Amino acid sequence: MRVDVVSIFPDYLSVLDLSLVGKARQRGLLDLRVHDLRDWTTDRHRTVDDTPFGGGAGMVMRPDVWGQAIDEVLGAGTGTRSEGAHLIVPTPSGEVFTQRHAESLASAEQLVFACGRYEGIDARVAEHYRSAGVTVHELSIGDYVLNGGEVASLVMIEAVARLIPGMVGNPDSLVEESHGAAGLLEYPVYTKPPSWADLEIPEVLLSGHHAKIERWRRDQALERTAARRPDMIEALDVAGLDKHDLKLLAELGWVPGADGGGLTRA
Ligand code: 6GU
User: What is the pairing mode between strands 199-200 and 254-256?
Assistant: First the structure.
């Protein structure tokens, strides 16, 4: 996979040399390049922003500079603007990035991250590339405000990179994790020592009884999700729940909705 990140603070992305993403680059699974947006400016002051039309606070990033930059990195990735290129514009006004986005982006040929600063990038940039047939995603990483798209890009690149085939040592570790297909948070995990700070391991995990362990873990996942993420309980597919699940959920105050869809509070 080819990944290009364009930013006025390319050093912000230097952590991509480390850890799993760094290893993927060394192993040739990921061709990741970070670019300085100012390399595409033509004026003496290397200007990337200007005042907003219509007035208001702050500065807006110029579409002409971004257009030069994005044209060049899109061409560099695939020879032409191929079907496989996705332009990602991190912005707090975007759709919220989820594991589903990560899964879908993991099979792309090229990802281009356009990191905005100030009050954001002139809206014509996303519009132009959409019209030109590039898949454009304006994505937020959550309901809070950052100073720019760099940290959000790091988050999305890590979430996508670990799903590239051959990246994670044991692919089983991707199966049961939180935000997987089950739509539940992960159950709590424990390791040695069996007794620590006066706290013991739940007895069932020492029993060797695999069916009981599986049931206990599922119950824990359901309880945790109900306590921490009621929105995920509401979205559960009732058809994917067994009798045990429904009994536990009823005890926690959740029952199947009248329309046969998700769950609702009793
Ligand atoms: Cl993608 N950008 C900025 N600037 N702030 C954010 C964000 C993105 N996602 C959440 N907050």
Answer: unpaired
Which of ligand 1's atoms lies nearest the C-alpha of 139?
Answer: 1
Q: What's the chain's Rg over C-alpha atoms?
A: 23
Beta bridge partners of 200: 195
Which runs of consecutive H residues, i.e. helices, occur in the chain?
19-26, 63-78, 99-105, 124-131, 150-161, 210-228, 230-234, 243-251
Instruction: Compute the distance between CA of residue 58 and CA of residue 49 in angstroms, rounded to an integer.
Output: 10
Ligand 1 centroid to residue 248 C-alpha, Å: 37
Residue 80 is predicted with a pLDDT of 55
CA separation for the pair 136, 156 (Å, rounded) = 15
Work out the pLDDT band at 116, boundaries 50, 70, 90.
Answer: very high
**DSSP H/E element including 61:** strand 60-61
CA torsion angle 73 78 84 89 (round to 10): 0
Would you say the CB of residue 199 lies under 6 angstroms from ligand 1?
no
Task: Establish whether residue 145 lines the binding site of ligand 1, counting it when its CB lies within 6 angstroms of any ligand atom.
Answer: yes
- pTM recorded for the entire structure: 0.93
141 CA: nearest ligand 1 atom: 9
Residues 29-88 pLDDT 10s: 999 999 999 999 999 999 999 999 999 999 999 999 999 999 999 996 655 555 689 999
